[in-house]
Design a protein that fits this description.
Order of helices and strands: HHHEHHEEHEHEEHH
CATH architecture of the largest domain: 3-Layer(aba) Sandwich
Number of helices: 9
Helix content: 40-55%
Strand order of the largest sheet: 3-2-1-4-5-6
CATH class of the largest domain: Alpha Beta
Distance between the termini: 68 Å
Shape: extended
Strand content: 5-15%
Largest sheet: 6 strands, mixed
Structural class: alpha/beta
CATH topology of the largest domain: Rossmann fold
Number of strands: 6
Amino acid sequence: MLFQYLMGAYFHHQPAAPRKVKYQTNPISAAISHRTQSLAPKKTNPIQTRYNNHLRYFFSRRVPHPRRVLLIESGSRGVIERLLPLLPGAFGNVEIDLVTCYVDQPAGFTGRVFNVNEYGGPAGRDRLLADLAARDHQLTGLLCTAEPIMTKWKWWLAWKLPVKVFIINENADFFWCDWSHFNVVWNFALERAGLTGAAAVPALARLLFLPVTVSFLLAYAGTVHLKRKIRLL
């Protein structure tokens, strides 16, 4: 029975013939193009639904037709305020919800706000996840602006919610976080880690010397404690 199930799952997920997609430098145009391809309703079997939910659409180029979009404000307020006027052109007339840590809400925002300060502790996190799951979002935008704001919250929600994720930079541009944009995601991660351009050399040097530094600190701490033990004898 297990063999038949696995073979059935395999034949349900034979990859489609590759399509030639013209590279688009404008992320908003790319979003409109993806949305146009996904307007027609598609029939999905239960196995495919479980597959997409489990992998968070990372290995799928398909963008689900959005009814609600969730934005996670893990960056400066000005980025969200520049992004909001662009979303109707990319996704149409959709409801937009916001997860934030700020007391007030962005200018011109009329959607529902979820403030993480009201969801403290493990029980609060579970309650926030339940509230967001009840809203049934199809897309989630993460602000990645190189600022230490809600870092754990945004990645935890991106992992827990069965949604298609798009990354928003400090210029209010965004790109899809999936396998077809792996090069973009990889280059973006390298830039955020300081491993590109002139900053790459000192960053790699620190990385190479990290084991030596840790070993030295451990040896120093061990020597100090050993001397203290000897004096107490």
